[in-house]
Design goal:
This protein has 286 residues and is α/β, with parallel strands linked by helices. The chain has a 5-stranded parallel beta sheet, sandwiched between helices. It has a two-stranded antiparallel sheet with strand order 1-2. α8 links the parallel β3 and β4. The longest helix has 35 residues. The radius of gyration is 19 Å and the shape is globular. The site of cobalamin has 32 residues, from α6, α7, α8, β5 and α13.
Length: 286
Amino acid sequence: MIAGRRLRIGELSRRVGVSPEALRAWETRYGLLTPERTAGGLRLFSQDDERRVRLMRQYIAEGLSASEAARLVLQHDERSTHESASSIAEIRKALEEGSDALDEVVVLSAFDRLLEALPLGVALSEVILPFLHQLGERWATGQMSVANEHFASNLIGARLRGLTVGWGSGVGPLAILGCPVGERHDLGLPCFGLALREHGWRIAYFGADTPVHDLVSPVDELSPAIVVLAAIDHERFTNAEAEISALSRRVRVAIAGAGATATIAQRLGVELLDGDAIAQAALLAA
Ligand code: B12
């Protein structure tokens, strides 16, 4: 979220994957949210409200009741407002400076400190995904070279993949994840998979540039609950239209990522996971 920007309840709900009813209940029962009110009585939520909801959801996913989770979130806030805000800001800065200086140790240790400071889902949605975004913006506006952007995104990708070891084991529902042919932007998928894993799902990961027709036999062998295909470029979906539609006759299929739109989903006869990878994982798991 752009600093200082306020959200209405519907937008907050979509970003965090929690229904407006639950958000209202968390506001009135636990005081978790402190919206500003406009003259017309409309409630507008801040970046801090969003952060508290994400943390709350994370604690609930770890098995706490809503009231215990809310108590912890509020305690955590009180204890560490200054300390944690400044350490997260330092971590963001270290990620940026380490990328600029091509300093692997600085980038990786910032990543590790982040995982110690925040629950995984919050770390991904609040720091890692925005950082990747920012890399692209800095590259597009000439503030960063392609080499530095590749260096940083490769390091982050390697660390994310390290966290995925063993995510195929267990007993939960299985999701098959991949990007259609031509799509190399796959970093949103491990983030989504890691968030699903936090909800007890298992993941079979095929990553970038996967021919969709080659997913037929894994689908028949593994009987996944869903196949999720992600792409930044919408043509990756339309180029594989026949294959995606055929796959959707065997298994539940969803498309996601910046290239996935409602129109394309409808045309292919599949579902759309719209927007934020971490919130969508929570919605799917729910
Ligand atoms: C890292 C990166 C690369 C890496 C990818 C490495 C990898 N393994 O992924 C490499 C170097 C390979 C690369 C290559 C290219 N890239 Co690039 N890349 C990026 C960068 C910096 C980060 C991408 C990323 O991981 N973002 C993090 C994701 C998760 O954020 P997001 O895409 O906004 O996703 C949000 C939602 O869509 C959703 N989401 C995303 N995935 C998923 C999955 C699921 C399941 C769900 C539910 C939700 C979801 O969640 C996110 C919000 O929470 C972006 C900058 C940016 N703004 O994103 C450019 C960017 C995507 N790249 C861009 C371009 C142009 C290219 C190249 C064409 C460059 C070139 N000339 O070669 C090639 C194309 C390669 C290809 N054939 O696919 C442009 C795309 C412009 C456009 N819209 O078409 C961007 C936006 C840079 C820019 N500002 O111009 N790139």
